[in-house]
Amino acid sequence: MTAPQRTTGVLLHATALPGTPACGTFGASARAWISLLAQQGVTVWQLLPLAPTDGTGSPYSSPSGSALNPWFLDADDLVAEGVLAASDRGALPDSSQPRLDSAIAAARAEAIGVALARGWSAQPPERQRAFAQWRRQQGHWLRDHCHFMVLRRLQRGAPWWEWPGPLAHRQRRALRHLDQHHAEGLLAEALIQWQLQQQWQRLQTQAHAQGVQLVGDLPFYVAHDSADVWSHPGLFSLGLGGTLVEQSGVPPDYFSATGQLWGTPVYRWWRHRVSGFQWWLARLERQLELFDRLRLDHFRALEAYWSVPGGDPTAEQGRWVPSPGEALLRRLLGRCRRRGRLLADGRLPLIAEDLGVITPPVEALRDQFFLPGMKILQFAFDGNDDNPYLPANLRGSRWVVYPGTHDNATSRGWWEGLEGDARARVGAAVGAEVRSPGWQLLELAMASEAELVVAPLQDLLELGDEARFNSPGTVGSHNWSWRLERSIDSLAGPLKGYGELAARLGRRGP
């Protein structure tokens, strides 16, 4: 297999885009951002999951894994298209907060849905027919999502296993009653998803026309309180009342004496295997409709996963259980080949998130399917010459290298927290005094053989930890809430420098 072209990208989640109230959208700023990347020869835009978030704002624990986050719906574009009245836009809740305002973003999305449903009967027949056709094409996920979100509101946010029995168990009579008596709310949810899909597809079309690839992110597990688990309980390790029998996490390690407990149900893999992995394949294909490539979070669980008893308060008493990841990836490879969704060199369009303590069997599974793994430069300078994150220790080109990701400090924040010995090691690696840690780490990454280098935008702007996106293991108002406080046009200088650095080091440039 030939080595892929060495390229560069930027990590920026859509919530952080500027110029709109409360939250970034799929509107004008997103279009300007794609154009700016293309102009400067940056060929990859990496995002976090586009799904609705949980109550903490995390997109990695979503109430609906196939849906798009309603916060991304751009009201100005809806008015321009004639599906939302200017008066409705003017009445939307507003926010003057510089960071993401989740309460206002949710209120705006709900108000847009109500307005879309209210004015739907007056829309042209051809638009109504297009919507009806799209609705039929979405299979079960859309109907399940709409039912779940409407019921969640009716049940005042209670988790689905606490709903009245007929609703918790999806009895047909109860769902027919919902269809009959809450038709407008269900219509609003479906219209929101349709309009989101259309706005995102326009961004896809623009990106492809301008030579920019869109890279997404898929959490390995789905939230316990989600449309996915509510509609397919037999595929997950649940008791009769919906309680967790086995839950996900990772074992105790250097960083946590009790491990990490994630609280999501693990999969009943034998049922997935019996069904030919239909649920998993549909989930992956939905994401590959949205993105050119997909980062698969917690890839190691495709080889074996840490399973913890459902009632345990920590992850200490878990056990490793084998997963049928090879069989699943073989199925996906065949389906992507038939549907023309493989990369140009014949590989699956996946990136394996293989961070942490990774065993040889996990590496073998990754390499069997020629998937690139991830390297984080902030992990490279512990003083061990055999540190696998040091660029000098990379073997081959199948890697995606980052200074840090959404879960790390910004490079400037990381540097400011380093002690003297570690600072000296960084200086030795970059071969100069460290004055601009983010850019100097990027130059180190770009000089490697790695097929892709991705810079968090915060590093290109040399921002400190006030711009950190998430601190794992914490719940706070600053997680997931950072937004750009400057226009997209003002980023031309840093992006130009990034593209020129890429070109100088043999990566695709302007």
Question: What this model shows, in words?
Answer:
This protein is α/β, with parallel strands linked by helices and 510 residues long. It has a single domain, classed as Alpha-Beta Barrel (TIM Barrel). Helices cover 39% and strands 11% of the residues. It is built from 19 helices and twelve strands. The protein has helices at 28-39, 75-81, 86-90, 102-118, 125-137, 140-154, 165-168, 172-181, 183-209, 227-231, 269-274, 278-290, 325-338, 360-368, 411-416, 420-430, 437-446, 457-460, 492-504; strands at residues 7-11, 44-46, 213-218, 246-250, 260-265, 293-296, 304-309, 319-322, 350-352, 373-376, 399-402, 452-456. The strands form two sheets. An eight-stranded parallel β-sheet has the order 9-6-3-2-1-12-11-10. Helix 12 packs across helix 13 (325-338). The longest helix has 27 residues, at 183-209. The model has no long low-confidence stretch (mean pLDDT 95).
Number of helices: 19
The shape, in one word, is: globular
As a whole number of angstroms, the C-alpha radius of gyration is 23 Å
Report the biggest beta sheet as strand number plus sense, adding barrel if it closes.
8 strands, parallel
Which structural category do the helix and sheet elements fall into? alpha/beta
